[in-house]
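New to this. Explain these tokens.
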Amino acid sequence: MCDNANNTGKIFSKPETGNGAEAVCESMLGPLLARLAPLRGKSFLKLLDFSESEISDLIELAACLKKLKKARVPHRICEGKNIALIFEKTSTRTRCAFEVAASDLGMHPTYLDPKGSQIGKKESIADTARVLGRMFDGIEYRGFGQEIVEELSAYAGVPVWNGLTNEFHPTQILADFLTVKEHFGRLKGIRFVYMGDARYNMGNSLMVGSAKAGLDFVACCPEKYRPSAELAEECGKIAASSGGSVSFSSDPYEAVKGADVIYTDVWVSMGEPDSVWDERIKDLTPYRVTLPLLEAAGDSCVFMHCLPSFHDLGTDTGRLINEKYGIDCMEVTDEAFESARSLVFDEAENRMHTIKAVMAATLA
């Protein structure tokens, strides 16, 4: 965890060792869970459903639980509960984060891979939700349309958590914001620039999260890759209340002036056909994150990415793209990805701590 002179509270300072850190976190767990009591039994489907203070408290709880884990203090506050993990789209970070977080909280997770359930195939979503809701205390869903996770929540009778849909990825944004707060000591006023295709789950969710938490969000992309006008308008209204802002740019070097964070994601989302690569590479190569772009933003600017990333030729996809198009990286260069400015693996770890906070707040 990055220590920073601007950190304003012990909860976001460098992890301590020994009884001091344990005492601070244990004394804070109770009050944090009490503040989050209205979330007990509630699903976590998209950040639009939550207030600025609830999002802030979830991040605080995640930081507290992270300190307890680093200090090896047991926190099995959901002892004996069982959760189902439905994965219609596979994932390394999301699966591992939910499974380790569940174990740390004293719960048993059951993993259902794309072939492990009949959801939407031989059994309706509503019927699946009612069956699983009788057997489990909570359900995670990672897959396709937002309407699926919303329907699961409507029928399950237990909390349902969105591990990713086409439209939103709320647990990732909590991890991103915990990482930002660890590094800068604050969220409000952070200039957060998202580069690339901003129409789907990451662009949407970062815009919503920034509007809720008071960040200055900039989507830098060609106009046709911007989030929907309806969602952008809603986020603009939210940002006006939180002290943040939402804006758009098609000029990378103009957009990153004064940026604290430059963020990107893969150019082709999970489930999209390979045929879109021609268009995306042509349209989005000017928005690739490079070390000169990071340097143009300023000395303190950091790089973030939700992973996985095509920054080199270490993947099958990367090698295939290299053979066809002659490029050795896509959304970010290896030089930028591996630079000292990169916080990508802090983000990856923080998936576990923030997912743990969501489960604890809704189940404990």
Remarks:
- Residues 211 and 305 are 19 Å apart (CA to CA).
- The mean pLDDT is 92.
- The longest helix spans residues 344-363.
- The chain is about 45% helix and 10% strand.
